[in-house]
Amino acid sequence: MPVPFKELPAWPSNVEAHPLLVIDYELLKAGDKTEIDRLWEAGSTLGFWYLKNHGGEQLFPAMWGMAEDVFALPLEEKMTFEQGDEGLSFGYKAVGHYITDAQGTPDPVEGLDIAKDDALAYPKVARRSYADRVNEHMEPTIAPFVEKCIELSNTMLDIFNDKLGLPAGTLAKFHQRNDHSSSETRTIRAPANLPQGKLAVGGHTDFGTISFLVNNIGGLQVLPPGDTEWRNVRPLPGHVVCNIADALTIFSGGLLNSNIHRVVPPSGAQSAYERWSSVYFTRPSNDTVLQPLLESSIVSDAFNKLTEERQKSLTPGVTSYEWFTRRQKNYRTKNHKGTETWAANRGTENGRA
Ligand SMILES: O=C(O)CCC(=O)C(=O)O
Ligand SMILES: [Fe+2]
């Protein structure tokens, strides 16, 4: 099993951890006004926050155990359900198949993504099939994880919906449980002892709506708005790191911030350990058109104040499916041609990634 959090070396005392707001999920659910305002503050500034009291504490590490079991299969078998180069991300990802920078440097991490649609439809296949070893974990591990993240996501979407002055249920309509989307779980393992300076995951913004992340050791970094230095995000036991992703930046006319982040080797004694992380990406259903929701005066007022260039970048005029497929395709090492394919892979913070 991946080394449990409590047995890992502590966060090195000489490494500064960037402060994130800690949001209490129980208070959000109870409609606590102060906590709701704090969530809005987090989403509209750095776009990253910790979530506590969410009830999913065991579910994220269980995903590491699931993936470890799957990664133990022979490579040949894992390659039978590889993601492919056509812009879908569901399935296995071998080391080196994603790029980490504009030069096309291949990544050092192994990954496994499972579609929300497959987890909910199991034992039916909604989007693709996986190895038996994955299927064995669908009901005990993957589906409960997906269900919890859908719950967290829906609660926060309704709050953002209200704060954005949108008619009730507007954001929920784009994220209906049974509509196909690129929503998915991702579990990645970075090897121990990666050389310092190597990127495990290159600088990017997330493709979807909200992301939910738990990792065992350091390495996650954010580049806060207006800052020129990458800042370290420290994993806190029992806390989920949540972040706004591109679709919410677009829907909100830029009010909510999908911030650039990346993964580097952990510092100090932690660098001698494998790094495990599990993410759930909520993404809008495939046919949702990505555009600012100008029917809200809060959104339209914010949007009208933006430069024409920024307005253009927040009006891609494509569906969620098209946006995702274009980016995912250009993330693949095999499709990399040069800086243009790197740029085509980037999101709403195009210029900074
Ligand atoms: O592993 C992490 O800490 C972050 C991974 C990430 O940003 C991603 O997969 O989008
Ligand atoms: Fe990410």
Automatic annotation (TrEMBL):
GO terms for molecular function: metal ion binding; oxidoreductase activity. Keywords: Iron, Metal-binding, Oxidoreductase. Residues 181-284 form the Fe2OG dioxygenase domain. It comes from Collybiopsis confluens. It comes from the Eukaryota. The lineage of its organism: Eukaryota, Fungi, Dikarya, Basidiomycota, Agaricomycotina. The keyword Ribonucleoprotein does not apply. Belongs to the iron/ascorbate-dependent oxidoreductase family. This is Fe2OG dioxygenase domain-containing protein. SUPFAM superfamilies: Clavaminate synthase-like.
